[in-house]
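re: ur question from yesterday

yeah so i grabbed the chain u mentioned. its 273 aa long if i counted rite. heres the sequnce exactly as i have it in my notes:
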Amino acid sequence: MQLRLWSLCLILLLSACQPAPYQLSSRYPSASQNERIAFLILHYTDEDDAHSLRLLTEPAHQVSAHYLIPRDTDQTPLPVYQLVPDSQRAWHAGRSRWHQYAGLNASSIGIEIVNLGYPPEDALLPAHQRRWQPYTQAQIAAIGALTQKLVQRYRIPPTQVLAHSDVAPERKQDPGPHFPWRELALHYGVGAWPDEARVTALRQQPAPAWNALTWQQQLARYGYGVALSSTWDEQSRAALRAFQLHFRPALISGEPDEQSQAILTALLERYFP
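ran it thru and got these C-alpha cells back, copy pasting raw so excuse formatting
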C-alpha cells in the first residue's frame, strides 16, 4: 500500500514538471481593448457609519461597494475603507443604464458615502423641500482626492462620473442635492459641469421651449435611459429630476424649465458637440 502511494506521488510530481504543450506569447497585442472600468458611480448609504459598514460587508445583504467614506469619526485624515478591490465587481448599481450600457456593476467603481439622506417624515415633500443632510468638509475633501485619483488612473471621461440617481432615475435619488458636483469639477477636474457663462448667455437669448420629444432626445443624447415616447411621462420626469439633482439642485421638480434647458444645452455643446 505504501509503495503504491509513493508511486502515485512520484507520478504527480513528474506530471507537474512536464512543460506545457503550448508557449504563451504576447507578441501581437490587439488595439481593440480598453479599461474594464469605464464609470465612477457615487452613492450615499442612507445609514450611519456602523450600519453602513455592516450593510456593505455582511453576505446576507448582497450589496457592496469598492469604497466607503465614513462620517462620524475623529480620525485625521478621514479613513476611506476599500471594501472590494478595483479589479473585482462590486454590487452597488443594480438595474442601471447610461447610453448604450446596462447593468453597470461590471464596468464601474462604486463609492458609498455615509449620509442619512433626509428624515423619513419628509418623504412626501417635493425633493427640493426635503431636509437633506449635508456632507462634511472632511468627506468632501476625501471624495475629491479619491475620485481624482480613480479618474486619472482609469481615464474615466467626465460624463461617466455619475450619481446613482443618474443611472437609475426611477429608483434612486442618491447622493442627493448636497453632493459637491460643481466643486469636484472645478477644483478636482472630476466629472462634467457646464460652462456657466454659456448658461447665462443661453438664458439671455430667446429660445423656443422644447416639447416632450425634444427633452427626451436631449436627455438621451447626454446619457439618460429615457424612452422616446413623445409624452411627458413619469420616466421622463424621473430622468429630468436626476438631471436637476446633479446640475441644478436648487429646484428638483422633474418639470421642464428654461434654466434646465440652458444647462442641458451647454452640457451637450461642451461634451457632445
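noticed a couple things. The radius of gyration is 24 Å. also The chain has two domains: 39-188, 196-271.
anyway ttyl
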